[in-house]
Amino acid sequence: MKICVISFDYWNYDQHIVKALQKKGVTASHIDISKFKYEYKSVFEKLKNFLFKVFLNKNIKKIKRQEFIIETLQRLGKQDQILVIRPDLIERKTHQTIKSYTDNYMAYIYDSCKRFPIDHLLEGVFDRIYSFDREDVKAYNFEHITNYIYLDKQPISDQFEFDVFIVMSPDERIHELNVIAKQLDQIGASYKFIVVSRKRPSHLYEGIEHTSKEIGTDELKTYIQRSRIILDLLRENHNGMSFRIFEALAYQKKIITTNSSVKHYDFYDENNILILEKGKLEINEDFFKTQYEPLDDDIYDKYTVSGFVERVFKLHEQRL
Q1: Is 249 a member of any domain?
Q2: Does the residue 173 lie in any domain?
Q3: Are 138 and 256 in a shared domain?
Q4: Which residues contact 168 (CB under 8 A, 6 or more apart)?
């Protein structure tokens, strides 16, 4: 079986889908358009691109990136299944060409359609559309699937350097981060909150760290390992489970989250997950007094990347 994944894999999450398929004996390929770099041939071409963007709403780099997808597919040949992640980054015309290389063309959306609309792609393009957002699933009749555990399961540890950890960009959640940091100071709980941006936000609470350097995957793993609890703050227009949730499950860490929809998932345990109500953000000190309760293996396995590819590509049906 030949399967191709097309994505903009800036954070290197999608590569785990390809590796999981390969482990199952699938001939899996990954067209990672984040790795495609286009060099202007001259100053004149750069100027031409500027004029195209301003007057024609066209971008030579984006055009070349989509040509790169098709050229790669031409080399790979016909695929049994193709999955595209972040389909909004690709023009409908290019999607139609990609679709000609398979009889099973699918999309996975790990963000809200309010943030990255795909209305122009809802009809006549995909055979199936998966989404992690329950509201979008209901509104557009998508198939629901969550993000996945891409890390190896780690043993429960009682050795940690700080109680609560989060790394995030400065956005509408900064106010919540400030409120939570002040509460943790008041109850004597330690934390490592890192905001990543070019400049430190002027209204950032003094106990919160700032860096202009991006936090890589390996560094992130180290911070998760050294923490007791992972903080997950829901972004505006998000209704799905972020990767922070699944990283916490892999490291068997407790979670504090503002995403109330977590209570609808079978991995939810009030001992392990503290839900903060929007507008209140009251931290219960008792949450810090209990240890993590391990999940049953059958629940945990369902959320691994292995379980993800089984469901999305319906591998069980393919084996019959």
Answers
A1: yes
A2: yes
A3: no
A4: 177, 194, 195, 196, 233
Q: Following DSSP, what letter does each residue of 105-147 receive, concatenated?
A: EEEEE-S-TTTS--GGGTTTT-SEEEES-HHHHHHHTPEE---
Owning domain of residue 221: 162-302
Residue (of 85, 77, 63) closest to 17 by Cα position: 85
Mean pLDDT of the 257-277 span: 97
- State whether 215 and 272 are in the same domain: yes
pLDDT tens sequence across 134-169: 999 999 999 999 999 999 999 999 999 999 999 999
Express each pLDDT in 182-199 by its tens digit.
999 999 999 999 999 999
Please report which confidence band the pLDDT of residue 59 belongs to, taking 50, 70 and 90 as the band edges: confident
Q: What is the pLDDT of residue 73?
A: 98
**CA–CA separation, 293 and 227 (whole Å):** 16
111 and 47 in a common domain: yes
**Span 212-220, mean pLDDT?**
92
Shared-domain flag, residues 169 and 61: no
- What's the CA angle centered on 169, arms 163 and 84, to 5 degrees? 110
Q: Is residue 134 assigned to a domain?
A: yes
Does residue 203 contact residue 176 with C-beta atoms inside 8 Å?
no
Identify whether the C-beta of residue 279 lies closer than 8 Å to the C-beta of residue 285: no
Torsion of Cα atoms, 12 then 96 then 80 then 310, to 10°: 50
53 and 63, same domain (yes or no): yes
pTM of the model: 0.92
For residue 128, list its beta bridge partners.
Answer: 106
Say if 151 falls within a structural domain: no
Closest-CA residue to 14 (of 317, 313, 309, 221) = 309
Please give the C-alpha separations between residue 28 and each of 3, 5, 17, 100, in angstroms, as whole numbers: 5, 8, 9, 18
Q: Report the number of distinct structural domains present in the chain.
A: 2
Helix or strand or coil: residue 51? helix
**CATH classification of the domain holding 34:** 3.40.50
